Automatic annotation (TrEMBL):
<feature type="domain" description="Fungal-type protein kinase">
    <location>
        <begin position="385"/>
        <end position="513"/>
    </location>
</feature>
<feature type="region of interest" description="Disordered">
    <location>
        <begin position="258"/>
        <end position="284"/>
    </location>
</feature>
<protein>
    <recommendedName>
        <fullName>Fungal-type protein kinase domain-containing protein</fullName>
    </recommendedName>
</protein>
<dbReference type="InterPro" id="IPR040976">
    <property type="entry name" value="Pkinase_fungal"/>
</dbReference>
<dbReference type="Pfam" id="PF17667">
    <property type="entry name" value="Pkinase_fungal"/>
</dbReference>
<dbReference type="InterPro" id="IPR011009">
    <property type="entry name" value="Kinase-like_dom_sf"/>
</dbReference>
<feature type="domain" description="Fungal-type protein kinase">
    <location>
        <begin position="118"/>
        <end position="362"/>
    </location>
</feature>
Length: 747
C-alpha cells in the first residue's frame, strides 16, 4: 500500500524539473542523530513525507542502502525506491496512513460520531498533533498541511498555533482527481502559500561562512554565548539548518517611543532604542538580517505561543543577540511584550534585558492564525494569534546551569529586585515566575573575561498592568507555570493574581532547584522523586474543567516547613527555613473569601567572598524572621517585597556558602523526574510553554462547493496515551475549508 500511495502522489506532482520528492519514512531512524535536536514525545514518525528537492535536504534524509542486507532490500520490493530517513527540519508535508478503523483518529462518518471517543483514537490524534508540533518547532512556519489516509478515504488537514482544520473524508479511490488536484496545486504554490514564513530564508554558503568567521574571531562574548553560536554551526547539518531572518525595522513597536539610549552591558557602547529614525537610518537600515539555527529553547506545545529562542548573529551590527519568536494572542486587553518592556525600561527597572526590536511579523499585515475563524462563537477565549518577534541585546544562561547555591541565590535575588522595581516603579506584575524566566547573565570585557554575573528576569508576555488587574479575564485560565504557582492560585483557579502569588513563586523556585541539585537528609532518589511530584505536580480536574492542585504545597506553607531538608548546615539551608517561616506568617494573616472556596475546582570549603557578584552586609533587624510583628491586625507579609528581600539579603551577607551543587539527583531514578502539567494551563501557557497539553475543540466542515457551514462541533478534553508515562496530552481544534487553499486547477 505504501508504494502504491507513493506512486500516486508522485504522479500528481507537476512535470518538469522536480521540486518535491515522495519519501517513505515511517520505519527508518531519524536523519538527525544529535540528542540536542530531539523533541519527540512519541518517538513515532510520519509514514510518508513530501520533501523539497534541496541538495541539503536530500543529502540529510538519504539512506545508504549498500549497508542493508540483500534480503531486507528484496523484501521491500517497490517500496525500496522511496525509503528515506525522516527529518522534522525538512519535511514539507507529512502523510499518515492507517488501516485499522478502530484505532483511526477519525471515523469515516461525515456527520455524527466522526470523532471516536476511545483511547486508541485519542492516541492517534495525539500522534498527528505531535507531527505538527515537531515541524513547527524545527521549521520557520506560519502553518502546515497534512494528508491522512484511512483505508480508501482521506482527509486533508491544516495546522497552526491555534489548532487544526480538518476536511470531511473523501474516497480517493473513487475520486482520485480530488487528491491529485490538491497535491498538484500544493506543489505549484509558493513557499508562503504552503505555510512557510517568507521572512525566513535558508542562509547561503557565504552567509554561513560569515557566521563562522565571526565565531572564530570574536573575543568580547562569554564562553556560553560562543558555545551557543558554535552549536548553530555544528547542528546546521543535524536537523537545524541556518536561516536568515529579515526584520523590517520600520515595523518595530519601538519606532514611536521617545528616543532613549541604553548602555550595552557587554561593552559600554550605546544603543539607541526607540525614537524616530533619521533619513539616513531609514534608507540604510530599513531591513536588518539575523542568522539563526538551533533553537536554545522551544515550546513542546502545538498550540499557544509556540515560543522559540535563538542565539543569533546580527549581520548589520556584527554582534550576537537573542531572537525570541512567538505567537501572541490578539486582544485589546492583552499587552504585547514589547509594550511591557518599554514601560518598565522607561521607569528604570533593573535586571531586565534590553530590547532592540519588537513587533508583529508583517507589520500592518501580520502573519496570523486561521483556525479560530472556524471555531464556534461560544468559545471567545480562543483568540487569533499574531506572529511576533523580539530581539534582545543580552543572551542569558539557563538558571539551572548555576555553579553553586550562592550563585543561584544571587541570581534569584536580582530577579526579585527586578520584580520589585517593576511593581513599585512601573506598576507591572510579572505573573509567571519560573525556572525558565530567570536567567544568568555574564557581562564580559573585550577579552571575554567575565566582569559581572547577575540575574535577569525575562519573559514579560503574561505581565499585567496594575490598572488592568480589575478587568475580567480575557482568557478563562490562570497565568503561570504549574510547579511555581502559589498554593492559593492552584486551589482557587478564579482567584485574581496578586503580588503575593509572584513572591511565593520565588520561594517555590528556590525550593524546586534545591530539591533537585543539592544533597538532602533523605538519600533515596526514588522517595525524593515521589515527594517532588506530590508537592509540585499533583492535580485533579473538577466538574467545571478546572485543574485543582497544590494541596501538599498548601500544607507545607501553613506549617512553615521547607519541603527541602539539606544535609549541609549552610546559609543556603538557613535561607530555605526562613523563607518557609515567612510564607507561613503570610498564610496565617490571610483568609480566603467564601466565594473562592465555593469555586474550588557536604563540603568544608566555602565559596570565597571574592567570588560573589553582590556584596551585602547583614541588617541589624529584618521584618518577619522568627517572631510576628507586635500588631493587633497583621498584614500578609508577601503583599509587599520588603520582607522576602530582607531574607535574601541576610542570607547573602553570611559566609556559610559552599560549592554544594551536585548532579540532578532525580534523573537516575527508574522514572526520571519530568514536570507534569495540567490540561487547563496549556490553553494560555507561559514563556515556559515546554509541555504538551491541551483541550480539544473539534468541528468538521463541508466539502465543496465553497459555501461552508460548520455542522457539528464537540468539546473534548482527553489525556493522550502516546506518552510513555501518560503525562502528556494533546488535542486538535478542527474545522476545514480546504478548497480555499487551492489555485485554479489545470485543464
Amino acid at each position: 500500500m505504501y508504494s502504491g500511495i507513493c506512486e500516486g502522489l508522485e504522479i500528481s506532482l507537476p512535470d518538469g524539473e522536480p521540486r518535491f520528492a515522495i519519501k517513505d519514512t515511517g520505519r527508518w531512524p531519524e536523519a538527525s542523530k544529535d540528542s540536542a535536536t530531539d523533541c519527540s514525545a512519541s518517538g513515532k514518525k510520519p509514514d510518508l513525507g513530501i520533501y523539497p528537492c534541496y541538495p541539503q535536504a536530500l543529502k540529510e534524509i538519504a539512506i545508504d542502502l549498500s549497508e542493508w542486507p540483500e534480503k531486507t532490500c528484496k523484501s521491500l520490493g517497490p517500496r525500496l525506491d522511496y525509503v528515506a530517513s525522516p527529518s522534522w527540519a525538512w519535511v514539507d508535508m507529512p502523510v499518515e496512513i492507517t488501516h485499522n478503523l478502530k484505532t483511526a483518529p477519525f471515523s469515516q462518518k461525515e456527520k455524527k460520531d466522526w470523532l471516536p471517543n476511545n483511547d486508541e483514537a485519542r492516541k492517534s490524534r495525539g500522534q498527528l498533533a505531535d507531527y505538527a508540533r515537531q515541524i513547527l518547532a524545527h521549521q520557520h512556519r506560519q502553518f502546515l498541511f497534512m494528508i491522512l489516509f484511512i483505508r480508501d478515504h482521506a482527509r486533508l488537514m491544516r495546522w497552526d498555533r491555534v489548532g487544526a482544520i480538518v476536511s470531511k473524508p473523501f474516497n480517493y479511490v473513487k475520486s482520485p482527481d480530488t487528491l491529485g488536484r490538491f497535491v498538484y496545486q500544493y506543489a505549484n504554490m509558493t513557499a508562503a502559500e504552503r505555510g512557510f514564513d517568507p521572512t525566513a530564508t535558508l542562509a547561503t554558503a557565504e552567509e554561513i561562512e560569515t557566521l563562522r568567521s565571526y565565531v572564530e574571531s570574536v573575543t568580547n562574548i562569554s564562553d556560553y554565548v560562543k558555545s551557543c553560536l558554535n552549536d548553530v554551526l555544528r547542528l546546521h547539518v543535524h536537523g537545524w539548518p541556518i536561516y536568515k531572518i529579515e526584520l523590517i525595522l520600520g515595523e518595530s513597536e519601538l519606532k514611536e517611543c521617545d528616543t532613549t539610549e541604553r548602555k550595552n552591558t557587554r561593552g559600554g557602547t550605546k544603543r539607541r532604542v526607540g525614537g524616530p529614525k533619521t533619513a539616513e537610518e531609514t534608507k540604510e537600515d530599513s531591513r536588518q538580517y539575523l542568522l539563526v539555527g538551533y533553537a536554545l529553547d522551544y515550546s513542546r506545545s502545538l498550540t499557544g505561543r509556540g515560543t522559540k529562542c535563538f542565539a543569533a548573529y546580527d549581520m548589520t551590527t556584527h554582534q550576537a543577540v537573542l531572537l525570541k519568536d512567538t505567537w501572541r494572542p490578539v486582544s485589546a486587553n492583552i499587552r504585547t511584550e514589547g509594550e511591557v518592556y518599554e514601560r518598565i525600561h522607561s521607569k528604570g527597572v533593573r535586571y531586565i534585558a534590553t530590547v532592540l526590536h519588537c513587533g508583529d511579523v508583517g507589520g500592518t499585515q501580520p502573519q496570523q492564525t486561521l483556525t479560530q475563524e472556524w471555531i464556534r462563537e461560544d468559545h471567545p477565549s480562543i483568540l487569533c494569534q499574531n506572529h511576533y518577534r523580539l530581539v534582545f541585546a543580552e543572551i542569558g544562561r539557563p538558571l539551572q546551569t548555576y555553579e553553586h547555591s550562592l550563585q543561584m541565590t544571587e541570581v534569584i535575588y536580582c530577579a526579585l529586585l527586578a520584580h520589585q522595581d517593576a511593581w513599585t516603579k512601573a506598576e507591572v506584575l510579572h505573573c509567571d515566575i519560573s525556572d525558565g524566566n530567570v536567567l544568568i547573565y555574564e557581562a564580559v570585557d573585550q577579552d571575554g573575561n567575565v566582569t559581572t554575573s547577575t540575574g535577569l528576569l525575562n519573559d514579560w508576555d503574561l505581565a499585567k498592568y496594575k490598572e488592568d488587574m480589575t478587568e475580567p479575564h480575557t482568557q478563562n485560565s490562570r497565568s503561570g507555570t504549574w510547579q511555581f504557582m502559589s498554593a492559593l492560585l492552584l486551589k482557587f483557579p478564579k482567584k485574581p493574581h496578586e503580588v503575593s502569588d509572584d513572591l511565593e513563586s520565588f520561594v517555590h523556585l528556590i525550593n524546586w532547584l534545591s530539591f533537585q541539585y543539592h544533597e538532602q537528609t533523605m538519600k533515596d532518589p526514588g522517595v525524593l522523586n515521589e515527594e517532588l511530584r506530590s508537592i509540585y505536580d499533583q492535580f485533579v480536574t473538577n466538574a467545571e474543567g478546572y485543574d485543582i492542585g497544590g494541596l501538599r504545597k498548601l500544607d507545607k506553607n501553613k506549617a512553615g516547613e521547607s519541603p527541602v531538608d539539606l544535609s549541609i548546615d549552610s546559609s543556603h539551608r538557613t535561607l530555605l527555613k526562613s523563607l518557609a517561616k515567612l510564607v507561613a506568617e503570610h498564610y496565617a494573616a490571610i483568609k480566603p473569601k467564601a466565594s473562592d472556596s465555593d469555586t474550588q475546582m557536604g563540603s568544608d570549603s566555602k565559596v570565597p567572598r571574592a567570588h560573589r557578584c553582590i556584596t551585602i552586609t547583614a541588617k541589624t533587624s529584618a521584618p518577619s524572621q522568627d517572631v510576628h510583628p507586635p500588631v493587633l491586625v497583621r498584614q500578609p507579609v508577601l503583599n509587599a517585597h520588603d520582607a522576602i528581600i530582607a531574607q535574601f539579603e541576610n542570607a547573602l551577607a553570611q559566609d556559610s556558602w559552599y560549592p554544594d551543587k551536585t548532579h540532578n539527583l532525580l534523573m537516575n531514578t527508574a522514572v526520571p523526574y519530568e514536570p507534569l502539567f495540567s490540561s487547563e494551563l496549556w490553553r494560555i501557557w507561559t514563556a515556559a510553554e515546554r509541555r504538551l497539553y491541551d483541550t480539544a475543540l473539534l468541528a468538521e466542515s463541508q466539502l465543496p462547493p465553497p459555501q461552508v457551514s460548520v455542522r457539528e462541533s464537540a468539546v473534548v478534553g482527553h489525556r493522550s496515551l502516546w506518552s510513555s508515562r501518560n503525562q502528556l496530552s494533546i488535542a486538535v481544534r478542527t474545522s476545514f475549508c480546504w478548497w480555499s487553499f487551492f489555485k485554479i486547477s489545470p485543464n
